[in-house]
């Protein structure tokens, strides 16, 4: 067991998989000798060399096209898109090509690849480097969508993503890169589509993802001092979506609150809410509440960004509303 | 340092310096070194089969049996045939939505291709893809891509994979003149050169983007060849209606890629006999231009060349009859196939064969 940062866990997860399987390769802007702009791939280049750790030009379409062509011919690439906002310049390759090719060819083409990307706000980068776009990916059939909240999960879920036979978008939350957590020694491999219950409480179910998980846990601490005990579920992946864990918790608590960084419209919480409303309505004893970023681009100034993103206070208030 | 391909081919093909496009360029100099007779007969057979196949597909469209849209390569057969004949069995083809010919050129049977166009169970992809996405991995036909430009980057990936795995496959990527103005073209060429990938990019310049002349929307006269220098590549122009010339340049470029000499960018000048897609009669094109290019139809032109070379006409007639029979058989088989089982709607989203997104 070692304490390590979320960013070091990324490098550890990549290293674990590249050491295991010679077909795993890494490509992206500055991922090699520079160790990545977020320093999340430090040491990988030194260990595996320039053939398997390929620095690319600023050409996001070329990066993802290369990953796709390599995946369909026997490699298992891990491609990096530096900021998830940049998916907007290569979304054709993601949404039209990678997501649909297995289906359109009726299973002839396999695309075992992972696209890692720095996602989310809280780091004062402004509207074009702070978006949470995991809901974009969730809207496209054919993509698996993963977003870890802890260093341990970074390693385990990244390993699962690399070994998965389908394309996986792996969202690393930028505001979590410096956070620390315990990571067991030895190989760690998780299963995609299994949520983790981070805290048990009888009064309400709070469902969160990535950076919103520690925030939801902080809100749960505060609510506990007020005599309200909440369950906090870390979804860990949006596709596959662990409906079972959420639904069984809601059956016990009768209340559901989702906490997401996405702007309000069509955030992933809306899908979770609609599933529970459609399938578990009579388990509910109060309204489903979504705590989201308002439907605005994220502003840069710390005071404004903090006001926009879901805060501990807003999560507490959201739980209170669901309990009324 | 490799000898420039243009130099190698100077005596063989119609490479020439960039000049403003003529309405109908003079036919290229016939190759000094013609391919072996067996190759020439194969090229002729491929072109005849492509032509017959697509004419039948058009007839079936008029009968309402081929649905949706499709984009015919009538008139452009010499490009797909020349490159197809020069490729090795394991090589990778990446084509566009105008990809029927490139699919047949890899040895894919006509019947499943026709059935795919008709949306039948026996289709190449069981009707899941349609005309614009023909794929047969078993034949090295790695897909037909319908969003302009994307597949140039994907072809790079297959070539990179071949290089990293230490195998010898070459990726050949076909695209239209219109694709030279989208960003992915430029991203792909730059990366292919930087990584020295075994990939050959083949621009089929048929002069019309869709409904607009490519010359009116492009900064240079030769949309691919004139951009080659920007990526440190030789400008390679070839008469795309001359199967001997396309075969020669294909052999040279593919051979260089396989030998570790890196990528090539070839511009094949050709013409589509019909419109952009099924819905388009192509009436926007000047009649004299169309007539001039119909006069350079690659198939009768090649037939005459083979006769001039002393090949017995009976051999050619036999190829033509065989092709017609093959198309008849393919369309009968396709028409006899039932529509796909509706359970296929939920098949093969994921590697487990299904479409489930929850647990």
Structural features, described:
The complex is a heterodimer of chains A (324) and B (359). By secondary structure, chain A is of the alpha/beta class. Chain A folds into 2 domains: 2-183, 3-Layer(aba) Sandwich (Rossmann fold), CATH 3.40.50.970; 196-323, Rossmann fold. Chain A has 12 helices and 14 strands. Chain A has helices spanning 6-20, 44-52, 60-71, 91-98, 101-104, 134-138, 151-163, 212-225, 243-253, 268-279, 302-308, 312-323; strands spanning 2-5, 24-28, 53-55, 76-83, 114-119, 144-146, 168-173, 180-183, 196-199, 204-208, 230-234, 237-239, 256-263, 289-293. Chain A has a 7-stranded mixed β-sheet with strand order 3-2-4-5-7-6-12, sandwiched between helices. In chain A, strands 9-11-10-13-14 form a 5-stranded mixed β-sheet, sandwiched between helices. In chain A, helix 1 (6-20) packs parallel to helix 7 (151-163) and helix 8 (212-225) crosses helix 12 (312-323). The longest helix of chain A is centred in the N-terminal third of the chain and has 15 residues, at 6-20. The radius of gyration of chain A is 19 Å and the shape is globular. The N and C termini of chain A lie far apart (43 Å). The model of chain A has no long low-confidence stretch (mean pLDDT 98). Chain B is of the alpha/beta class and 359 residues long. Chain B has one domain: 3-Layer(aba) Sandwich (Rossmann fold). Helices cover 40% and strands 9% of the residues of chain B. Chain B contains 12 helices and 6 strands. Chain B has helices spanning 5-9, 37-62, 77-86, 100-104, 110-117, 150-165, 183-194, 225-228, 243-258, 287-294, 298-308, 313-336, and strands spanning 92-96, 141-145, 171-176, 199-205, 236-239, 264-269. Chain B has a 6-stranded parallel β-sheet, sandwiched between helices. In chain B, strand 5, helix 9 (243-258) and strand 6 form a beta-alpha-beta unit. Chain B is globular and about 55 Å long. The N and C termini of chain B lie far apart (57 Å). The model of chain B is unreliable at 13-32 (pLDDT under 50).
